[in-house]
Design brief:
single chain; alpha+beta; Gyrase A, domain 2; four-stranded antiparallel β-sheet; 3 helices
Length: 174
């Protein structure tokens, strides 16, 4: 059995060049704006390590005690959009099947409590804060959540754009 070192090194060199070119394409994808979103449920009791108290709304802060572990994240979002709303705008989130079921179960079990929504956006997720704490009126069926964020229109547009990039990447990975 003969072993051709030169041919092997040529194949190795070609493989390395292909990996380098693929790495450059991956680098450009990472330049796209992304966003992160965490939705937490309000907690009635305070338990160290399991709950935390947050401040929502910058102009007129409201303190909300929440469960530290989020019930939904950007991984559950299939689409986000900015909607016109009387007096401003709102963000609409459409969840995947699992996210829709989770939203429905938590909202049915916790009427009168709040959902605390934390968002991050921008090229490096540098910007982020508690955006809203909508009250749960009752069971939320359909897998859609609409809320008015404590954000400028530009910030909300960046959030929506980033969430859609993440949703597209998640769909492509499935």
């Amino acid at each position: 059995m003969s072993f051709y070192a030169r041919r092997f090194n040529l194949y190795l060199l070609l493989a390395a060049a292909l990996a380098l070119v693929s790495g450059c394409a991956t680098f450009h994808k990472k330049d796209q704006q992304v966003a992160a979103l965490r939705i937490h449920i309000e907690s009635a009791a305070s338990a160290p390590g399991v709950t935390q108290t947050i401040s929502v709304l910058r102009a007129d802060p409201v303190m909300v005690n929440i469960v530290t572990e989020p019930i939904l994240t950007e991984a559950n979002i299939v689409a986000a959009k900015l909607m016109a709303d009387p007096g401003g705008f709102a963000v609409e989130l459409k969840f995947d099947e699992t996210g829709g079921w989770t939203l429905e179960q938590y909202s049915a079990a916790n009427p009168g409590k709040h959902l605390a929504i934390f968002g991050q956006w921008g090229d490096k997720l540098a910007n982020g804060r508690w955006l809203a704490a909508p009250s749960i009126a009752g069971r939320m069926a359909g897998g859609t959540l609409v809320f008015t964020p404590d954000a400028s229109r530009d910030e909300a547009e960046q959030l929506v754009k980033g969430l859609n990039v993440v949703a597209k990447n998640n769909a492509a990975a499935k």
